[in-house]
Amino acid sequence: MARLGLTLPLVPRGAPESVAFAREAFDLGYEEIWTAEVGGLDSYALAAAAACTIPGVRIGTAVVPAQTRTPMVHAMAATTLSQLTHGNFVLGLGISSENIVADWAGQPFDRPLARMREIVTVLREVLSGEKVTFEGSTLAMRRFRLQSRPQGEVPIFMAALNRGMLRLAGEIADGVILNMVPERALPQVLGEVRAGAEAAGRDPGSLEVVARLHVVLTDDAARDRDIVRMGFGAYAATSVYNRFFRWIGFEAEAEAVAAAFAAGDRAAVAGAMSDDMCDAIAICGDEEHVAGRVEAYAAAGIDVCVLNPLLPESAGQRRLLESMAGVLDGTPEGSGGVVRGTA
């Protein structure tokens, strides 16, 4: 069946409160926990805490920026988590954005496709237990071997938005992680993943599709769309997301966001996001509306619908958690979503 997951951390909760909330979600029937990372809590540490608190749950990272740690560090973290989850961990990596990688972490943000290809290649070799020496165009590793082995294989999922990265995910990844992708853009987006898989001689249906769904559970969508604007305006201003939004049909909004950001007008950045754009990249509405949208994602080919509650109040987060429990019970199998999403 298509599965329901929860994003951690939950803003503004800290690590202990986020993990306790995830335990509640698991008890209500949520099957997966996916940890995100921007500039707050460490994704791997949070995943480890969840693994120790919720035995049996599948845990993935959605996502860790690929370049802010070396492949050696990613591999050690993935090994640790595979053991803590008894082989039920997914390593989700993304190329991230220039502000996180270059401005905050001080790492190069260029040649994204080459970097991601080489990082995934090295990680697969290291996680297999081999001693690895690698000389690539963007990274190098000499004579490294893990001193402890993962429990089973560690699937590597790639976060992807634009054509090149989506095709690369289809070519080399075990799954693809989507963020802020409207249902109506899924055939367009998953079509690129399918093309990448087929060009590499792979079965597109073998790739799992995970979607992070940002939710504002509200009885006044007109009022609370501003939560989406304030939360994601800065994302839309980054080069990667700005190109993505232009590609899927929000050219005017993306252009206005970029101009406002260049002028240093953060209020205008948020204001440039139309109601249509807010409603497309997030789910804003009452329980019936949210449930319908989640079901629509599953029907369109998403294997794992990972909810991210945007309301910061504990009552609002719990209301969403409880109202969506079981929403995908009886939903047809999502596996092979890359195929169904392009039908």
Summary tags:
single chain; alpha/beta; TIM Barrel; eight-stranded parallel beta barrel
Description:
This protein is α/β, with parallel strands linked by helices and 343 residues long. The chain folds into 2 domains: 3-214 and 309-340, Alpha-Beta Barrel (TIM Barrel), CATH 3.20.20; 219-285, no CATH class. 48% of the residues lie in helices and 17% in strands. It contains 15 helices and 12 strands. The strands form 2 sheets. It has an 8-stranded parallel barrel, surrounded by 8 helices. Strands 6-7 form a two-stranded antiparallel sheet. β9 (175-179), α7 (186-199) and β10 form a beta-alpha-beta unit. α1 crosses α2 (43-53) and α6 (163-172) packs across α7 (186-199). The longest helix has 17 residues, at 221-237. It is globular. The model has no long low-confidence stretch (mean pLDDT 95).
Give the topology.
Blueprint: E1 3-8, H1 15-28, E2 32-35, H2 43-53, E3 58-61, E4 64-65, H3 71-84, E5 89-94, H4 98-104, H5 112-127, E6 132-135, E7 140-144, E8 156-159, H6 163-172, E9 175-179, H7 186-199, E10 208-217, H8 221-237, H9 239-247, H10 251-262, H11 266-271, H12 275-281, E11 283-285, H13 287-299, E12 304-309, H14 314-324, H15 337-340
Parallel strand pairs: 1-2, 1-12, 2-3, 3-5, 4-5, 5-8, 8-9, 9-10, 10-11, 10-12
Antiparallel strand pairs: 6-7
